[in-house]
Every structure is written in C-alpha cells, then in structure tokens.
Amino acid sequence: MSHSKYSPSKDRYTDSVGYRYCGKSGLQLPTISLGLWHNFGDVDDAEEAEKMLKYAFDQGITHFDLANNYGTPFGSAEKNFGKMMKDLFSSHRDEMIISTKAGHNMWDGPYGDGGSRKYLIASLNQSLKRMKLDYVDIFYSHRYDPETPVEETMGALSDMVKQGKALYVGISKYPIEKAREAYRILKENGTPCLINQDRYSIFTREVENEVIPLAKENGVGFIAFSPLAQGLLSDKYMNGIPENSRAAHSYGFLQKSQITAEKVEKIKALNKMAAQRGQSLAQMALAWLLRSNDVNSVIVGTSSVIQLQNNIDALKNISFTDDELWRIGELGV
C-alpha cells in the first residue's frame, strides 16, 4: 500500500493522554497504550491500521504493545508494524516505547513455545527482524512455563538487556510465587523487572489481591490488558450477540456461554451508571482502571480510529465517588 506523507501533530505532548512513571523506574508510559493483538495482521484492514497508529501517536500514545504471535498469521502484526515504523515513524523511534513478548506457541517443534533460553532469544531475534529494529524497549516473558526453571527464563531476559536487544524486561500472567521469584532473580542479575502485565477489568479483579501489591512492593510497574473484558464492558452485548463479535466465533477467549442473562443485567446496570457520568460503558471501564496510580497504563485494542478516540475520551473523567465505586464493586463480582 502507498503511505501518505506523515507529519505528527505538534501538540502531541501538550494536549495528550498524560504519562505515569512505570513502577520505581524513570520510564514514563502513556496512561493509554495501543495493543496490536487484533486488527494489525495480514487479514486485517491495512489502511485502518495505519490510521490508528498515526492517530495514536498524534494523541501522545507513545507505547505500542506487541508479541511474537500477534496477528493472523502469527508474526504478521510485528511485520506490518515494522513496515509502518520504517515508512512513517523512522525519525521518531526515540519517542516510542515498543514492547514485544515470547512465551506462547509460535513455531513448530520443541523450541517454538515456553520459557527456555533457546526459545526466548530466538524469538526476540525474529521479532527484531520482523519489526526492522535494533532493539525493543520492553521484552516480556509472556507466561510462566512450569517446565522451565525461572532462573533460566529470567537469565535469558537479563542477557537480552545486557546485549542491548531490550532496554527493559517484564513478565506477564505469572502465578504470584513465581512473580516473586522472577523479581528477586532479575534484581540480583542487575536487570530489575520493569513491569508486570496482567488481565484486569471491572469483571476480572483477582490481581487486586496480590499481583498489584507485590509489584508495588518491588517497585515494579503494572499495566492492564483486556480492560473491557473482551468487549463485555461495552454496549456490544446488551441486546444479544452481534454476528461479527468475538463471542459469535467458536474460537477465542470470549465464548457465548459466558454471556449469561445475569451478566447482561450487570452490563446494563453498569451502562446506566456510565450514562449518568456522561460516559459510555467502555469509557467508564477504562476510567475505573486508571482512577488509581497503581495502574500505570491500560492497553486498548481498537478496530477503528473512532473507537480509539472514544477510548482516549475516557480520560476526561477518571474520578469516582465512593458510592459509584461501591456499586461498581457489587456489579463486578
């Protein structure tokens, strides 16, 4: 596709999404980060993907979250992002935080999945090639692998920093005891864990018990993914299951069986609250996560510029009364 000449907005940092320090580090992340899990693969609309990246950057969104297996087929989100980096953003690389991950199935055979040193290092080298980059800002172990000692996985992450292929490292979806171990080992290796990425939303609050407190105690940042619970925290499912929605497919993380009558009633009640606040349900769900500085950033996945714009507008009101918080707490369980 032909890329139109792009000049970023001059106001992108003055009138932007705002930034928060990531844990105890000196690195600031935008409150909203753009995730490329969906909508940036070879099967997706390339023009809309390009528009979303430009719009995000124009709004001061500097953090782009990828993984080796994002996109259909695997790797295509990184490859397409790499093309756009080269054509549109090459002179702005130092204004961007680009993260990628390895941990889930990526290629055939015994070395294309898990947490081994062999897999993680090979995967990051492939990711850098696809994205046409010399280094990523954050490299994550995408999941805990029970077959690999935590020392081996963390040792590989540390070495990637020492080799200059990643500036920082993080973990994602680790059981609490393994996270504790990972933080300790990385600190001892001289490459402290920057960030923990986990699922967090009004409907998924387990991380409040131990994950966020432990991260805070160790000076590690926290970033939330699936802030809209795969679309449940939007107006999408209030009147049944739309044909093209995630829940309409037999594959994926959101299944029809999860959209019960009881859940729909809760969604409707939350939607009513959001309307009283002058927000859409999706905006209130994002605002609810960002009400606390313990959440350094939330990762949104959008399919259009309009959707991205609506998500950013959530930042116009991120304060809640005690009564609102109590009601959301009741509806979120």
Number of H/I helices: 10
Q: What's the CATH superfamily, by name?
A: NADP-dependent oxidoreductase domain
Query: Helix fraction?
Result: 25-40%
Shape, per Cα inertia axes = globular
Low-confidence parts, pLDDT < 50 over ≥5 residues? none
The overall average pLDDT, rounded, is 94
Number of domains: 1
- Span from first to last CA? 46 Å
Strand portion: 5-15%
Largest sheet: 8 strands, parallel, barrel
Structural class: alpha/beta
Radius of gyration: 19 Å
Return the CATH topology. Answer: TIM Barrel
Q: Give the strand order, joined by hyphens, for the main sheet.
A: 3-4-5-6-7-8-9-10
Q: Mind telling me the CATH class?
A: Alpha Beta
**Which CATH-level-2 architecture?**
Alpha-Beta Barrel
The ordered string of helix (H) and strand (E) elements is EEEHEHEHEHEHEHEHHEHH
Q: State the total count of DSSP E strands.
A: 10
